UniProtKB/TrEMBL annotation, chain A:
<dbReference type="InterPro" id="IPR003339">
    <property type="entry name" value="ABC/ECF_trnsptr_transmembrane"/>
</dbReference>
<feature type="transmembrane region" description="Helical">
    <location>
        <begin position="148"/>
        <end position="166"/>
    </location>
</feature>
<protein>
    <submittedName>
        <fullName>Co/Ni ABC transporter CbiKLMQO, membrane protein CbiQ</fullName>
    </submittedName>
</protein>
<keyword id="KW-0472">Membrane</keyword>
<feature type="transmembrane region" description="Helical">
    <location>
        <begin position="50"/>
        <end position="66"/>
    </location>
</feature>
<feature type="transmembrane region" description="Helical">
    <location>
        <begin position="112"/>
        <end position="128"/>
    </location>
</feature>
<feature type="transmembrane region" description="Helical">
    <location>
        <begin position="194"/>
        <end position="211"/>
    </location>
</feature>
<keyword id="KW-1003">Cell membrane</keyword>
<keyword id="KW-0812">Transmembrane</keyword>
Automatic annotation (TrEMBL), chain B:
<keyword id="KW-0813">Transport</keyword>
<keyword id="KW-1003">Cell membrane</keyword>
<keyword id="KW-1133">Transmembrane helix</keyword>
<feature type="transmembrane region" description="Helical">
    <location>
        <begin position="91"/>
        <end position="113"/>
    </location>
</feature>
<feature type="transmembrane region" description="Helical">
    <location>
        <begin position="36"/>
        <end position="56"/>
    </location>
</feature>
<feature type="transmembrane region" description="Helical">
    <location>
        <begin position="134"/>
        <end position="156"/>
    </location>
</feature>
<dbReference type="GO" id="GO:0005886">
    <property type="term" value="C:plasma membrane"/>
</dbReference>
<feature type="transmembrane region" description="Helical">
    <location>
        <begin position="63"/>
        <end position="85"/>
    </location>
</feature>
<keyword id="KW-0812">Transmembrane</keyword>
Length: 217, 200
């Protein structure tokens, strides 16, 4: 729905501005409200994810509360949650390859585009391999207990993932050489569009960062 | 082992982002195209490591595998971990963009030591059968110990309010260090038997 390149840029700007800010304003909620309306269907799913991501933040806030700095604890809690919620709303259900194109369109250079594209491709392959190994272990009645045998089995699984990945990377390297790869990353120009929602998100983000109205904390 | 968004002070976020940014740009500049597939596949394994839950008593912990990535890539592990951390931040919400620099330095710098221990384990000597497994264990253990020390150090630098969480973070990671050490010992042992050339 939102262009991945725009999503990345907006997340970068929002994260840094809020992380470096000592105060939270009501206007900071504007882009979050907008994204919540767009992703209304998945909102509770996203909130559930946010809840699990709060474990470390709650521990940090408790640590700050122990030194009687309630204002800082509240600031950290709200600031962290706003940034994480913004990111989750932006990237929820986003396709891995759209993200690779999004990164390549940022114009950071062909090496970084290439690195992310193949990283995403290898993640899919390694994920399939991992689930295949897990199913094999289940079929062989492997017991998930704390023992040296269990750790050795997991270590073998990790080693096989590494070996498989190395083999695939070598095949890819040779394929690139044969095809005369020169670092150019081709893509369908119209595959990702820049639309109304992107413009609206940028405007709301700028409003939220420029007009600091309604101090929350 | 990620520091979440919004926790750190600007005095930590800005310098760490600058240092990490400069390192990434420098490594990308001197990177050869033919090395990218290898870095990308290691990055994918670093990403997948968070799915691998190893049993520990009534609960389970997920692996990090920074040491193993460092053992195969050396300094380029920084690029692999950078890509893995960025994708984890975008798709799962672990870590984040503003703390990417801190998280990258925290996980990637100690992982480079993994390469040193692997090189050390391959040197011929009289007591190789004893020190080789120790080196392989240290690949996982030392890299995580370094990361946990940096994590606690960063939290301590963030202010006296964070002393409690800094000590909790260090203590809770002690078990994970042992598990990572054991996993790296057996995993490198397996790779050593199957394809020794990969370790060179």
């Amino acid at each position: 729905m939102i262009n991945p390149s725009i999503s990345l840029l907006c997340f970068f700007i929002f994260s840094f501005f809020l992380a470096l800010s000592g105060e939270i304003y009501l206007t900071h909620l504007l882009p979050i409200i907008f994204l919540s309306l767009i992703k209304f269907r998945y909102f509770f799913e996203i909130l559930k994810r946010l809840f699990f991501l709060n474990l470390f933040i709650i521990l940090v806030a408790l640590s700050v509360i122990l030194s009687d700095n309630y204002h800082l604890a509240l600031l950290i809690f709200i600031r962290s949650n706003l940034i994480i919620l913004f990111g989750l709303l932006l990237f929820h259900k986003m396709d891995f390859y759209d993200m690779a194109f999004g990164i390549s369109r940022l114009g950071l250079g062909s090496k970084i585009s290439y690195l992310f594209y193949f990283c995403i491709r290898f993640i899919q392959i390694a994920k399939m391999d991992f689930y295949k190994f897990k199913r094999t272990l289940k079929a062989r009645n492997f017991s998930h207990t704390t023992s040296i045998f269990a750790y050795q089995t997991y270590a073998n699984l990790v080693a096989m993932l590494f070996l498989g990945a190395f083999e695939k990377s070598q095949i890819l390297e040779k394929t690139m050489q044969i095809r005369g790869f020169n670092g150019k990353f081709y893509k369908l120009e119209n595959s990702l569009k820049f639309g109304f929602y992107d413009i609206l998100l940028i405007i709301l983000l700028l409003i939220s960062l420029i007009f600091k109205q309604g101090v929350l904390i | 082992m990620h520091i979440s968004e919004g926790v750190l002070k600007p005095e930590i976020i800005i310098p760490s982002s600058v240092v990490a940014g400069v390192l990434v740009v420098y490594l990308l500049y001197r990177l050869n195209y033919k090395d990218i597939p290898k870095i990308a596949c290691m990055s994918a394994i670093f990403f997948i490591a968070s799915f691998i839950h190893v049993p520990l008593g009534p609960t389970s912990i997920h692996l990090i595998l920074g040491g193993l990535v460092g053992a195969f890539l050396g300094v380029n592990a920084l690029l692999a971990i950078f890509a893995g951390l960025l994708l984890q931040a975008l798709f799962f919400g672990y870590g984040g963009i503003s703390v990417l620099g801190v998280n990258l330095l925290m996980l990637a710098l100690p992982s480079i030591l993994g390469r040193y221990f692997v090189k050390l384990s391959l040197k011929e000597c009289k007591y190789q059968k004893i020190y080789q497994p120790i080196c392989w264990f240290l690949v996982g253990f030392i890299s995580l110990l370094g990361s946990a020390l940096i994590l606690s150090g960063v939290l301590v630098l963030n202010g006296k309010e964070f002393y409690a969480i800094a000590s909790v973070a260090l203590a809770s990671n002690l078990v994970l260090m042992m598990v990572e050490g054991i996993i790296s010992l057996f995993a490198i042992g397996f790779i050593y038997k199957v394809n020794r050339g990969l370790l060179n």
